[in-house]
C-alpha cells in the first residue's frame, strides 16, 4: 500500500498541505458528480427540511450551525443550505440543486460511490498508486478513522466564503490528529472560490478553541446547540509544536487545482476559501481522518460517533481502541 513519497512527505511537513494533481481519473470524478446530482435530485426534499443553513459563525465565532438536524448528521446524509439561498422571510429562493452549500456527514458509509472512494487508489503523478489508507499510514497514523465526509458546493453567484480556520478546532482529539483529504470534483479557481493556505501555519498556530455542544451527553435536541470553547487540552499533535519563536505572519497562497486533484490538509493549518460570485460552480468532496490509537475523543465534540464507531479507513489495526463507544449517546 504505497503512501506519500519522501519528497511529498517533506513538503506536507513543511507547508502543512500537499496538492496531488490528477489523483483521480476523470471516470471517478464524473461518477461522484453523478452521485452528488442524484442525491440532490432524488433524496433532498425541501418540503420536510428544517431549512438549516450552513453558517460558520464568521470571525467572532458566534452563530455556528448547531441545531439537532446538524448535530444528528454524523450517521446520516443531510443537506445544509446556502445562506443567500433563503430570503429574510425564510423562503428558499433558488432551485433546490442550487440552494445547497454542503451535504454531510456520513457519505463515506451511506453512499456507495463515496464509500468506494475511501479505498480507491489514485496516482501521484510519479507513476505510483496511492490509497488514502496508505497515505494515512505514511503520515504516521496507526489506526486512522474516517469520522466525517462532506460534499461542499460553492454555488454559482451565491457560494459562501469559508473563513480562515483549522480543522482540528472542529474535529478535536486529545492530542490533535485530524488530517483532511479534499478532492476537487470540478476545477477550483480563484474565480469560483478555490482553497488558500497559510503555508507552515500548522507549525505555529495552536488549537486554541473547539466547537463543542453546549450540553454534552444528552440527546441532540437537548444539547442547546454549539459554541466555540477554549481548548484546555493539547494544542498540537505530539512533537509537532515548533514554539512561539517560530511564529510567522506570511501570506495565504491560493491552491487552484483541476478536477481530480487531491489536497491533503494538516488539522492545525490555517486555510480558507473565498465567495463564489462567478457563474461557475465548484463541487468538492472531503473526508477527515483522526487517530484512534492513544487518543481521546470526548462527548463535548459536536460530532459524536455512530453506534458502530468511526469508520476504519482500511489500515490494519494495531492494539485496541481506547474509545468506549457504548459510553456515547444512544
Ligand atoms: O472547500 C472549501 O471551500 C472549504 C473546505 C475546508 O476548509 C475544509 O474542508 O476544511
Automatic annotation (TrEMBL):
**In the record, what terms sit under GO molecular function?**
metal ion binding
State the source organism's domain of life.
Eukaryota
- Gene3D superfamilies linked: q2cbj1_9rhob like domain
Which sequence ranges are marked TM in the entry?
none
Write the record's keywords in alphabetical order, separated by commas: Iron, Metal-binding
Check the record and name the Pfam families matching this protein. PhyH
Q: Which family does it belong to?
A: Belongs to the PhyH family.
Q: Where is this region: Disordered?
A: 216-248
Name of the protein in its database record: Fe2OG dioxygenase domain-containing protein
Which PANTHER family does the entry link to? PHYTANOYL-COA DIOXYGENASE DOMAIN CONTAINING 1, PHYTANOYL-COA DIOXYGENASE DOMAIN-CONTAINING PROTEIN 1
| Cofactor entry | Fe cation
InterPro entries named in the record? Phytyl_CoA_dOase-like
Source species: Coniochaeta pulveracea
Check the record and name the SUPFAM superfamilies matching this protein.
Answer: Clavaminate synthase-like
